[in-house]
Specification:
Blueprint: H1 27-40, H2 46-64, E1 72-75, H3 78-86, E2 97-101, H4 106-114, E3 121-125, H5 134-138, E4 145-151, H6 163-172, E5 176-180, H7 192-195, E6 199-203, E7 215-219, H8 221-224, H9 265-280, H10 282-297, E8 318-320, H11 326-335, E9 341-343, E10 346-349, H12 357-364
Parallel strand pairs: 2-3, 2-4, 4-5, 5-6
Antiparallel strand pairs: 1-7, 6-7, 8-10, 9-10
Helix pairs in contact: 1-2, 1-9, 2-9, 3-4, 10-12
Length: 367
């Protein structure tokens, strides 16, 4: 694909990219030079160096999101980003419903359930619902809905949703839309402008190969000024270095969601990984993943596929369930040296651009 691909470690048999993608080998040198360089140089301007690195992280993410850096704010995790958003928005008295699918990542459900103490009502689309069908959402959306959380790709089924259509349903009833892209960004197109979502939350640990701690939120420019986050700190300030305890003014852009002293290391690693992936080509990476997952899907029994057969509705993972044969299937995959994981729904297998057809064949040998 590109010379940048040569900077990745040997990934033979590594199919855990839905959990933690492999950072490029050069990320370690970048982290050392950027994080520790100002200290070792005895530079008394450490923060300017680090803030430039974080601005680089925002800029790289913005390119992936088809947006601008001013609308991106670093966060420690996806659930932290959701907490920041929901704590910052004005609430109309008769709009107290929060809508989420029962199949969404549990951490986000935990955040919503805690808000019931503040008078919110959490409504969940049952696990049996077809979340790919907009009508499943439409019947639960009305003038009582304050916020709806959509998941672009579900982690345990790899169902990939038409987010533009779902966000349009939320707008029709005046509800706020938040989209979780943790399982899609880097392997499926995430277009903030086309979707017209109010907020997007995600992480770089998976397909963006950015390591842990590099979460983020994206805020629609039309929403930013309406938001007054409660969890603030000196980096939520329009001028973090003003140092006047009697004066606070929200940052004019998405950084108002930032909070106190940020973690710099995750942003350094993630920015470097995203830039490296963009050098390979995100469209080429998606095409490679689609080819490898299709190789699996077209050679396993239809009844074994938990993830959608239609590639347009499938994320970057293939989930397989063989019923009575499942334990034996898992044991044979492990014995062959493949790295993957197992959930109640099935075996999760997730090839990145650095995987090969041989990795897929090692799975198919035991189907």
């Amino acid at each position: 694909m590109s010379a940048a691909a040569d900077s990745w470690p040997d990934a033979s048999g590594y199919l855990l990219n839905h959990s933690a993608g492999l950072p490029p080998l050069s990320a370690a040198d970048t982290l050392r030079d950027t994080l520790f360089g100002p200290w070792t140089a005895r530079d008394d301007q450490v923060w300017p160096h680090w803030l430039r690195a974080i601005e680089g992280f925002r800029a790289e993410l913005a390119k992936v999101l088809h947006s601008e850096a001013a609308l991106v704010c670093p966060q420690p995790s996806v659930s932290a980003a959701l907490t920041q958003i929901l704590g910052s928005l004005p609430v109309a008295p008769k709009r107290n419903r929060l809508l989420i699918a029962e199949r969404a990542f549990p951490s986000l459900g935990f955040v919503l359930k805690k808000l019931e103490r503040r008078g919110f009502e959490v409504v969940m689309l049952p696990r049996s619902s077809n979340t790919l069908d907009p009508d499943s959402w439409k019947c639960c959306l009305d003038e009582r809905t304050h916020c709806v959380l959509f998941t672009h790709v579900h982690s345990n089924t790899s169902e990939c949703h038409d987010i533009g259509a779902l966000c349009a349903l939320a707008r029709e009833v005046g509800a706020i839309s938040v989209v979780d892209v943790a399982q899609s960004i880097g392997i499926r197109d995430v277009d903030a402008q086309a979707w017209r979502a109010d907020f997007i939350i995600g992480s770089c640990i998976k397909w963006l190969c950015g390591g842990s701690g590099a979460g983020f939120l994206w805020a629609n420019a039309a929403r930013v000024e309406q938001c007054e986050p409660i969890d603030v700190g000196w980096f939520s300030h329009a001028n973090p270095f003003e140092f006047d305890i009697h004066h606070f003014s929200y940052a004019p852009d998405a950084l108002r969601f930032w909070g106190g002293t940020p973690s710099v290391a995750p942003a350094i690693v993630a920015a470097h990984s995203i830039a490296s992936l963009r050098a390979v080509g995100l469209e080429q990476i998606e095409a490679r993943n689609r080819a490898l997952t299709e190789l699996l899907c077209s050679n396993v029994p239809e009844q074994a596929l938990v993830s959608p057969r239609d590639p347009r509705q499938r994320g970057g993972s293939v989930v397989l369930q063989f019923g009575d044969r499942q334990q034996d299937f898992v044991a044979r995959l492990r014995a062959s040296g493949l790295q993957f994981d197992v959930r109640a729904e099935g075996v999760r297998l997730s090839p990145h651009f650095y995987n090969s057809e041989d990795d897929m064949q090692r799975v198919l040998d035991w189907v």
